[in-house]
């Protein structure tokens, strides 16, 4: 009976996490368009901090907690599709970590990347979502 609820928790927080991952690099682009040291830049620092603390970090932790609970429930550890999924979700978690670090750099007044590079990096969560969902649904049919 617990299993469907774990899946509900997992998927709800996947949606929140992905929403945050899509929003944050957009915030970075707008932030970098504001003049350095301006009031607008300070407002973006505040918005980024809130997105980090309220959405991104809690959602990522809960996706992992529910996902690992599901993995133990169905004993996914020996299954090929799960190894591939872990590879992709570890990559996505690394991207999350990079974003947290970049938000802190922006808050200190550093702007290491151009708007163009940030726009390109904005594609990472979309590509990761395609790879992960394909692995979970199609990969599972072939990699048991
Ligand atoms: C962060 C670590 C994650 C872990 C450890 C994890 C693990 C799992 C496990 C074990 C299942 C159960 C499969 C089943 O019972 O059929 C599952 C389901 C699922 N996961 Fe994840 N997951 C993670 C992240 C993600 C992410 C980031 C996404 C999407 C971008 C995602 C999408 C899904 C989907 C769509 C299902 C439902 C599959 C189905 O019902 O057939 N997961 N996950």
What does this structure look like?
Catalyzes the oxidation of protoporphyrinogen IX to protoporphyrin IX. The structure is a single chain. By secondary structure, this protein is mainly α. 85% of the residues lie in helices and 0% in strands. The chain has helices at 2-33, 39-74, 80-107, 115-121, 124-142. The protein is elongated. The mean pLDDT is 97. Residues 10-11, 14, 18, 63-64, 67-68, 70-71, 74, 76, 89, 92, 129, 132-133, 136-137 line the site of protoporphyrin IX containing FE (HEM).
Q: State the separation between the terminal residues, measured CA to CA.
A: 24 Å
How many separate helices?
A: 5
* Number of separate domains: 1
Stretches where pLDDT is under 50 for at least 5 consecutive residues are none
Our estimate of the beta-strand percent is: under 5%
SSE order, as H and E?
Answer: HHHHH
- Give the proportion of residues in helices: over 70%
Quickly describe the structure.
It is a multi-pass membrane protein. It comes from Croceicoccus pelagius. The chain is mostly helical.
Q: SSE layout and pairings?
A:
Blueprint: H1 2-33, H2 39-74, H3 80-107, H4 115-121, H5 124-142
The structure holds protoporphyrin IX containing FE.
List keywords for this structure.
binds protoporphyrin IX containing FE, mainly alpha, cell membrane, metal-binding, heme, Protoporphyrinogen IX oxidase, 144 residues, 0% strand, HemJ-like, 85% helix
């Amino acid at each position: 009976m617990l299993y469907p609820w774990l899946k509900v928790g997992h998927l709800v927080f996947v949606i929140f996490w992905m929403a945050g991952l899509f929003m944050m690099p957009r915030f970075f682009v707008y932030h970098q368009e504001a003049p350095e040291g301006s009031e607008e830049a300070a407002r973006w620092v505040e918005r980024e901090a809130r997105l980090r603390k309220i959405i991104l970090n809690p959602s990522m932790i809960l996706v992992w907690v529910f996902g690992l609970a599901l993995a133990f429930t169905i004993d996914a550890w020996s299954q090929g599709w799960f190894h591939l999924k872990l590879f992709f979700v570890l990559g996505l978690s690394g991207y999350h970590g990079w974003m947290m670090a970049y938000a802190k750099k922006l808050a200190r007044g550093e702007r290491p990347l151009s708007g163009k590079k940030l726009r390109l990096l904005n594609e990472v969560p979309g590509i990761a979502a395609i790879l992960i969902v394909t692995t979970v649904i199609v990969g599972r049919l072939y990699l048991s």
